[in-house]
Structures are given as structure tokens and as C-alpha cells.
Structure of histidine kinase:
Amino acid sequence: TPSAPTLTHAPQYIGFSDIDDLGKHQWRTFVLKDEQHNLLIWVGERDDVRSDLVNRIVRHTVLPNLIGSLLLMAAIWLAIGWGLKPLANLAAILRGRHPGSLEPLQLAPLPSELEPMQAALNRLLGQIQDVLSRERRFIADAAHEMRTPLAVLRVHAQNVLEAHNEAQRRESLNYLIVGVDRTTRLVNQLLTIARLEPNAGLPNTTRT
């Protein structure tokens, strides 16, 4: 062809090789030998043409794909950030809460996908609040129930100290032992009540 290189010698190797066009251009060639017809088929392409083709491919294919990929990644990052913003807000609210605060969470607007999580957290907070309320109520009731038995034990102990003879002392000790046994039963009742169902309250216990 008219654009074929002016060569001082043909390529000597079958396959790919690099040749010089009398110092004008570098060529990348490929030689295939046809044994049946005893022919050498030689094709080549100038390096500058190849470089221009590669540059065009990069400009029209690689660069647009690269820019498109970067834009897509940025869009995905923004979408994920927007979608996770309610979770970040929830984390900030929880971090800023007082340790004793058990008020329900109110996040608005909230995506429908996160509403079950908020409801579950509010149920958990409500359960914790119920447990703490029951514990406070139990402690108050237990203190009220124990006040009279402890006062009676104190009276019996005081009688032991003030006994005038051995008979009075033994009698006061017997009352003291009986009072201790009754108080022990009352404590056991209170402990049993503490293990009952959450909504169970303290029954009317017999005071000593």
C-alpha cells in the first residue's frame, strides 16, 4: 500500500516484531507464514498511529467510564449517607441522654424501614422503666412490712437485757427467738414475691 514502510530488509521472524522505517517511523509488525503456498503474510502498524488509536480509545471509552464510575460512587455515598442519617440522629440522641432518662424516643421524620426499630427500642425502654418502678415499689413495701417486726424484736431484746431473774430472761429469749423466726418467714415471703410475675404486688402479710 502507499503507506507501507520503506524497508531495508523484511522481518526475519514469524510473529510479532518491531522494525524501523529508515529512521522515519517505528512499526509493530506481525508475520504469518503460509506453508501451503510458500507465502509470508506481513501486516504492520505504525507506532504513532497505534498511540493515536490508544489515546482515542482512552478519551472516548476509558475516561467517560472512569468519570461515570466516580459520579456513581459519589451518588451512592450520598444516598447511603442520606439513608443512614436517621440512625446517626438516633445515635446522637442516645449519646446525649441522661443515664436515668427512659422517655420514649420520638424521631421524625423517620423512614418506614426504621419505625420497627424505634418501636422496639421504646418497648425496651418501657420494660426497663416498669422493672425499675417495681423494684422501687417492692423496696418501699418491704421496708414498711419489716418496720413492725424489727420493732418487736428490739422490744424482746431490750426485755432480755432488763430481765430481773433467769426465768424472765429465758422467757424474753424465747419471745425473741419466735420473733426472729417470724421475721425470717416474712423475709422469705418477700423474696418469693420478688420472684413472682412482674405485675404481682405485695399481699397482706401477717405482722408479728
Q: What stands out?
A: Residues 47-96 form the longest helix (50 residues). Residues 5 and 21 are 5 Å apart (CA to CA). Confidence is low (pLDDT under 50) at residues 200-208. Residues 113-194 form a domain with the Helix Hairpins fold (CATH 1.10.287.130).
